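user: can you give me the structure for this one chain? tokens are fine.
assistant: on it. calling the predictor now.
[tool input]
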Amino acid sequence: MYEFNEFQMQQYVGEVLHQVEAAALAIVDLKGAVLDESDPSLSIPRAFAAVQGLLGAAAILSNLLWPNPASKTVDCEPLSADREQARQRTLARGKALRKTLGVTGASPLQNRKVRNGFEHIDERLDQYLFEHARGASRYFVDRSIMAPDKVRFGGQPAVFLRLIDPGPPTVSVMGDTLELLPLNNAIDDLGYRAQHWLQDHGPMASHL
């Protein structure tokens, strides 16, 4: 139903490459922060800022390739004909972009739970403070870089709001966990595909 010409696809693939570059910079900064033990008051904020940057870039890549536009309005009403047409076009764009880049099967980029946890940290705080903590310890650990079994309160495992576990590297929000190495590999692979496609298609190749 929807066809995308080469110029349009160049823009989408170019945006994929922009976000791959942003993710790569965030990963470099994250590695530097985790390895820097000289001043935790600086390295921990730096590490979590890098994680947010990485997850943000990964989220945009996920939206480009696997878009999930709302099928109803914010009031749960059916979409107008124009908005439904735009929704179908967005879905078709994701499918066309996946085909262009040869992306098949499942990918760590499709896991949006941890990204959503960072983006909606207010709701995670609501969940803990008004649900999880009832009748339990009021203590939790936030923005730490450690193995999760290192901290216990009253003999019980600690509740971690946001955590970076350095080995094997994972990031988690309230128990939702994302492995960073598979995510990094998926982003690298996507960057390779995008770069090579642009080298063979049109003027954007001159900017690589």
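assistant: here you go. The helical segments are 6-35, 40-65, 81-101, 113-119, 121-132, 180-200. The longest helix spans residues 6-35.
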